[in-house]
Amino acid sequence: MKYRLLDFLQCPHCRGDLEVQPLNHTRTEYNSSELNDNNACPTYCKNPDQELIKNRETQSHCQKCYEHEITEGLLTCGCGKVYPIINGIPRFLPDSFDQHVDFTRKYYNEINKHDGALNNKDKEHFVRMFKKTQGTFGRQWKTWGHSERIYGFTDEEAKEWFLTDLTARDIDASYFKGKTVLEVGCGHGRFVKILNDLCDEYVAIDLGPSVELAREITRDRPKVHIIQANAMFPPLKEESFDYVWSHGVLHHTPSTKEAFQAVSKLPKKQTGRLYIWVYHKGGVVWEYGNQFVRSITSRLPAGLLRLISYSTVPLLYLIPAYNRRVNLSNMSWSECALSTHDWLAPKYQWHHSPEEVKGWFEEQGYGKIEQTSANGVGITGVRR
Question: Any idea which fold 127-384 has?
């Protein structure tokens, strides 16, 4: 974790500021060209070589700040919450210490100095509501995250698809120059790697263990920040980002609308943009049929479900995926199985109409609301 990230982070429990306690760190020297257009942190300068200076206006030492990487540490809040930094990734899930036993044992004495750090009362609720989703997509990206084509696209094709189908009509690649972008639900980090080349700084969050893969493929990029967190409780300050986007993620939460409401506060007022894509609501027969099938498949053991995902690939000719490229004419059998697994496995899968989602944007004070050309329900707007 770069010290720079502290200027974006806040406690997801009380929304308070966080303090960092580094326990291990590395330093990497970057060329000045890799850190061009540096912007001094608007709230605090947290460079490790100097004291915290509020409302710092100069850009001195910014390069050093990016070169320091906290590989292990603790983030603490005045409300009593403690969050670990493990493998350079800040972890904001209630069971993070339980899931990383080696880290917890190694730094037990430091962790135990904070009363209640290892007795998080939110763990039971998290396990009940989110643990299955975390496991489902963790296994999915572990299995298919290294495929050449994901959902029908190579990396270069995915970049073009993003710019033409997943953004507002008045946006092209030049829009992202100098911008700070947030991706909600980055999975294994494919778009992090692709889109970071377009913008100045890229922050990405995901619920699952695929953040490890996202971290690995972007490790050499100083202005990429990976966070493990819940989209419904993002550990990020409001009005911090120029562009926030989430594709095919929010409908896998307990409430798409509540997740949207949480994410909608993160773009900057007046200029910040938000884009989300969710499943389209079909007819009555389709909705009931889908619910019936998924009420069975989403409860199956992981190994059996994976086998079914492979065996049902030919059905893509009868029931096309949202991305029509996903079929055996364009992709391998294994690559197609990603899409069938993505449909059959998740615990939550909500469907919505364009009018419903546009209404959410209006309720949160967005203007210039429009539907993108992507199949499904892709809506974008500008925060007012």
Answer: Rossmann fold (3.40.50)
